[in-house]
Amino acid sequence: MSTPTAATEVTETSLKSAAHDYWSKVKAGDIGALPAVLGLLVLCIVFGSMSSVFLTPGNFANLLTQAASVIVIAMGLIFVLLLGEIDLSAGYASGVCGAVLVILITDHGQPWYIALAASIAVGMAMGFGLGTLVARLGIPSFVVTLAAFLGFQGILLILAGEGGTIRVEDETVLAIQNSNLSPALSWAFYIAASVFYVLLGLSRINARRKAGLKAELFKLWLIKTISLVGVSGLAVWALNLERSNNRELVSLKGIPYVVPVILFLLVIGTFVLGRTAFGRHIYAVGGNAEAARRAGINVKNIRIAAFVICSALSAIAGLLFASRQNSISPTTGGSSTLLYAVGAAVIGGTSLFGGKGKMRDAILGGLVVAVIDNGMGLLGYAAGIKFIVTGAVLLVSAGVDAVSRRGSAV
Amino acid sequence: MTEPILSLRGVNKSFGPVHVLKDVNLDVHPGQVTALVGDNGAGKSTLIKCIAGIYTPDHGEFKFDGKVVNITGPRDATALGIEIVYQDLALCDNLDIVHNMFLGREVKKGPVLDESAMESLARKTLDSLSVRTVKSIRQTVASLSGGQRQTVAIAKAVLWNSKVVILDEPTAALGVAQTEQVLNLVRRLADNGLGVILISHNINDVFEVADNIAALYLGTMAAQVAKNEVIPRQVIELITTGVSAGVEKAGVK
Ligand SMILES: Nc1ncnc2c1ncn2[C@@H]1O[C@H](COP(=O)(O)OP(=O)(O)OP(=O)(O)O)[C@@H](O)[C@H]1O
Ligand SMILES: [Mg+2]
């Protein structure tokens, strides 16, 4: 900024106009990430003040690995939800893919990467089947994936066998959810990621200024970036504290490996949805499929692709399940998994009506769900109460979604 | 008179047992507004959807720029330079104005969308049409008024150096001032050398802006005549009865 006084004046007024812009966006049905962020903050304060364990580094790391598989399934679901469709089978798809992975490693001695590639391929094939039934035959996705929910559960049961669990001992697979980057590497990763994020934001603002277009308000961007980088720095610091109960025996420090894995998926997913024509077409089909068709977009292929991506991400979630449980069982990816994942996406701000949602919603919402589950568990509430509360939060989010949508209808 | 840019001969279209278009002929000349009139259900929207490649006609010949062409999908029509502004606006409410204008034909730098280029081009197009009613072209279409949406839809159609622009009742939902603006916009398209097809139920609008008038009656082309050869009463007769004294029945040339 060459002329500081003039610049401050401009940003001063435009910060107000930014608040105004946000409000008109809210009125148009786009509430953004603010409610989920605030909700997360409030939950952390409440649980932190009620439980002495909640805010310890050990519990924080635990929470992240707990949330990881649900977050990854939610990331995949967002592609499907953006179309206004649903995939109820995503949870068990992760179970089946996890079983494929574990069987290839444990029973067939395959290296982890071959097994992972195979399990992702199986996931994509399952997604292709689902997507084809929905897009080409026109069966509602609710019905197709409800049938698949049962079918995949059956496949998982058969794969797991009567005994029930298949153990996995591969070091790499186990490391993802059970080991950490060293503290030094954690900081290095944090710095690299922060620099990447800041440069990305700056180059974007710069490109728009160069093209003579209205850029995002610099001050607002600065506030957002500083808070995000600051909070993540705090998180890295906390994760780098010793969290082993018996530090003579084993030391537990650093960012769990699963965190970079999820951030990697976040970057890729955000890029695909926000910066490619394919991503744009997903939003278009979700917003108005007929308009998309008239614009020459192959709506059927877009639908199929979304289901393929969803199931492929479920396969990665299967890897995370296998890693965390050291095994796969007939209930992997079952019980509340799918509902938590749908809840995560919706709580994060993705609309069940299609056309609205972002990759980051999975992370924000996934953390909200995990915090409720973890915090209430620490406070000694029974599973029943946890389910009721999580269900209520999901209902409130879906209600906000529906109401804001009605508000935006012209 | 100029050679027609678009010319249809003997177009037929049925939906199951319903024979909606019967041997329809139509000529569209560059630099002219051709009004397509007809009662509700006459087949106007169906006809232009055949031109757009949304529907495939059962038979019929399409000539574009003097050459016989085969339109089998929306991409064929747009490749020829035919753009449609639909009665039920084909805009995505959840996307902003720029995204809508470039939908399906995004400008890319490698695999990445070139947002700046698209935004500049959208801005330029709106300016060239003297559109001043939209505040920010980054607002979602959901937040626009009916007239603004129509403007976006028309701007989207002319973004592509199109040769023929088809408008299906562009003023149906608009107030007086906005109707006037849109009609001016329609006239400007033709003055820029485009062939324009305007579907309208409003005879005043038709006589204000059209150069010639094609009247559909129950799926058949009752007549296509120059505007200055007819008076509004004759056009109304063509619409309601399919014939009018002093107007020749449209036949195959
Ligand atoms: N997809 C379809 N399937 C079956 N019948 C159809 C279909 N589309 C249109 N029709 C029928 O074709 C006839 C012509 O419809 P069309 O929409 O082309 O009329 P229009 O001239 O545009 O009328 P309006 O002025 O009300 O818009 C109507 O009788 C309609 O019911
Ligand atoms: Mg119509």
Tally of discrete structural domains of chain B: 1
User: How many H/I helices of chain A?
Assistant: 16
Strand content of chain A: under 5%
Q: The CATH topology of chain B, please? A: Rossmann fold
Please provide a written account of the structure.
The complex is a heterodimer of chains A (410) and B (253). Chain A is an all-alpha fold. Chain A folds into two domains: 53-179 and 280-397, ABC transporter involved in vitamin B12 uptake, BtuC; 181-255, no CATH class. Chain A is 75% helix and 1% strand. Chain A has helices at 4-27, 34-50, 57-82, 90-106, 112-135, 141-160, 171-178, 183-210, 218-239, 258-275, 277-287, 289-294, 299-325, 337-348, 359-378, 383-408, and strands at residues 166-167, 327-328. Chain A has a two-stranded antiparallel sheet. The longest helix of chain A is centred in the middle third of the chain and has 28 residues, at 183-210. The two termini of chain A are 41 Å apart. In chain A, 41% of the residues are buried. Mean pLDDT of chain A is 88; it is low at 1-12. Chain B has 253 residues and is α/β, with parallel strands linked by helices. Chain B has one domain (6-241): 3-Layer(aba) Sandwich (Rossmann fold), CATH 3.40.50.300. Chain B is built from eight helices and twelve strands. Chain B has helices spanning 44-52, 74-80, 97-101, 115-128, 146-158, 176-191, 203-209, 232-241, and strands at residues 6-15, 18-28, 33-38, 59-64, 67-69, 82-85, 108-109, 112-113, 164-168, 195-199, 212-217, 220-226. Chain B has a six-stranded mixed beta sheet, sandwiched between helices. The relative contact order of chain B is 0.18. The mean pLDDT of chain B is 88. Magnesium ion binds at residues 44-45, 87, 168 of chain B.
